Automatic annotation (TrEMBL):
Keywords: Hydrolase
Gene that produces this protein: axeA
Gene Ontology biological process terms from the UniProt entry: polysaccharide metabolic process
Organism: Microbacterium hydrocarbonoxydans
Residues where substrate binds: Y92
Protein's name in the database: Cephalosporin-C deacetylase
Length: 323
């Protein structure tokens, strides 16, 4: 796909005025406090597997409203903690899958934690294990418009709360050095990582890879691809819901979380990305409170830098930990 967004020089300085609710901070402080008040300690169950060089644990922890959420926790075999830890979030439609599918961080000496995304896991990959027990009003197909008529009921309120409480749960483990926790994820996982960083103190780094869920007002209508186009389809039917829809989305915009994320960040952006347009990524990266380095992939679409970018993440995080 040819480049369709702003020129590169404009992207690098792009700092749009993103709608921010007056009660954004109060909304999230209350949301997290309510769920933390009913949270139970996480449970870890050792999983027997052919992976002899790592130890694999099935995780269950309390997420939004005390709901049970699943995940994986993997550490190098025989490692004595506490270890630097990478908490990872998944792309849109995927579930936690199987632990052998993602071993790079544990193979590099880190503890690695991977959160299942509630309600997802049936679009690609090898499945998810966390239901979303909360119903919502009218919505289009997919997850983007579930509960979109009210921020209190919106789907990503639950997901972002899960992410913040997953970090809480992992920090309570003996194997985890709670002062050396970083977050990462690609696409939706990158958007969740930005939100988690805006909601969690003391992270050592944030590594959003071609992040989704940023600068909704620009993304919706700029691209004709899903998942953003789910909102277009919804508004094509609910013609009188435009203002309320974008008001709801403003509570979940990655640009607003980035402006509150004190940890330094390494973003990636693909300049031909038709799913997460480059300007939406830069809207978050250029306003990131802790400062952000952006790695550009000029001739890639949403796949971004893939394995090459992981190498850059690993080098960046190692330098952060040594510094």
């Amino acid at each position: 796909m040819p480049r369709f967004d702003l020129p590169v020089a404009e992207l690098r300085s792009y700092r749009p005025a993103v709608q921010t609710p007056d009660d954004f901070d109060e909304f999230w402080a209350r949301t997290l406090a309510e769920s933390r008040a009913v949270a139970q300690p996480p449970t870890l169950t050792r999983v027997e597997s052919p992976l002899t060089l790592v130890e694999v644990y099935d995780v269950s922890f309390s997420g939004f409203g005390g709901d049970a959420v699943r995940g994986w926790f993997v550490v190098p075999a025989g490692a004595s903690g506490p270890l630097p830890t990478v908490v990872e979030f998944n792309g849109y439609g995927g579930g936690r899958g199987l632990p052998h599918e993602r071993l790079a961080w544990a193979a590099s000496g880190y503890a690695w934690a991977f959160m299942d995304t509630r309600g997802q896991g049936s679009a690609w990959g090898t499945g998810g294990d966390t239901p979303d027990p909360h119903g919502t009003g009218a919505s289009a197909s997919g997850f983007m418009t579930r509960g979109i008529d009210d921020p209190e009921q919106y789907y990503y309120r639950r997901v972002f709360t899960d992410a913040a409480l997953f970090i809480d749960a992992m920090r309570g483990l003996d194997q985890v050095d709670d002062a050396r926790v970083a977050v990462t994820g690609g696409s939706q996982g990158g958007g969740i990582a930005i939100a988690a960083a805006g909601l969690s103190d003391g992270l050592v780094g944030v590594m959003p890879d071609v992040p989704f869920l940023c600068h909704f007002e620009r993304a919706v209508g700029l691209t004709d691809r899903d998942p953003y186009n789910e909102i277009v389809r919804y508004l094509s039917v609910h013609r009188d819901a435009v203002d309320q829809t974008f008001r709801t989305l403003s509570y979940f915009d990655g640009a607003n979380f980035a402006a509150r994320a004190a940890a330094p960040a390494l973003y990636s952006v693909a300049l031909m990305d038709p799913i997460c347009p480059p300007s939406t990524v830069y809207a978050a990266a250029n306003g990131h409170l802790g400062g952000a380095e952006v790695i550009e992939y000029p001739f890639n679409e949403h796949e971004g830098g893939q394995g090459m970018h992981w190498q850059r993440q690993a080098a960046w995080l190692a330098a952060r930990l040594q510094g």
